Amino acid sequence: MRIAFLGTPDFAVVSLAALLQAGHQIVAVYSQPPSARGRGQVLKPSPVHAFALEHGLDVRTPASMKDPGEIAAFEALDLDAAVVVAYGQILKAGVLASPHLGCFNLHGSILPRWRGAAPIQRAVMAGDDLTGVQVMRMSEGLDEGPVLATATTRIGASDTAGAVHDRLASLGARLLVETLPAIASGQAVEVPQANEGVTYARKITPAEARIDWTLPAQQVDRQIRGLSPFPGAWFEAPSSRGPTRVKALLSGVEDAEGPPGLALDDGLLVACGQGAIRLLSLQREGRGRQEAEEFIRGFPVPAGTVLT
Hints:
By secondary structure, the protein is of the alpha/beta class. The protein has 8 helices and 16 strands. The strands form 4 sheets. It has a 7-stranded mixed beta sheet. Strands 12, 13, 14, 15 and 16 form a 5-stranded antiparallel beta sheet that branches. Strands 3-4 form a two-stranded antiparallel ribbon. Helix 1 (about 10-20) packs parallel to helix 2, helix 1 runs parallel beside helix 6 and helix 5 runs antiparallel to helix 7. The protein is elongated. The protein starts with a strand and ends in a 10-residue tail after the last helix. The relative contact order is 0.11. The model has no long low-confidence stretch (mean pLDDT about 95).
């Protein structure tokens, strides 16, 4: 099939690689424009952009797919289908109608739950025990099109958003490779989404990353795991140099009580509004990720310390 692939982050790279391996002709790859990153604010291509360049693919990075010139260039590709995986731009009717078979999106949730930008993080933060990936025919509405294929995975009590992300990326790549031939042959069945159970996975805001120890331990644990590894839920711990920001990247719930934010032992057991959490993996400003035992060797948090 003649395919245009539209995607930006690591999650999408897995699908692009699978489509190439399956023998599809990727005539163009669309990705978000390079962004400034790192201390030097150097412009760097997205993961999809970099992968496409490594494999000699035509890469296009329009600032907006609403531009009439970009729509005309897309129409000129004479595509069988377009595959969209976490692209980051809304596609208008002219783009959606251009490929002969249509435009198909791989979405990281079981729709209509968690339509939108951050479905994986929201599922973990909400305490969902099941999630998945789905291939759907795209419409102008936000993740509202009919579903053609689904693959699911459980969310365990110790799963982070990062772990679920990696599983769904692999599941989704296989699902796309399996589903595209069924679409081409007319055998794929399109199932309209339910009108009930619609939720929206809005983008994660900076304010959501700060830990509020007055919340129940289960909710704090879900926040930590849902924001790990990025952007990372954080708190401040006292040190000789003043308050130090620390990211909590993995935790577990324990049955203990105390004033919220109080370290209950020397091993990073912290009281919440109800119950307590054990911090298992952390990261100080300017440092790499460390497991709890290594972290407290270099940055002790003795019982009685108040975390804010």
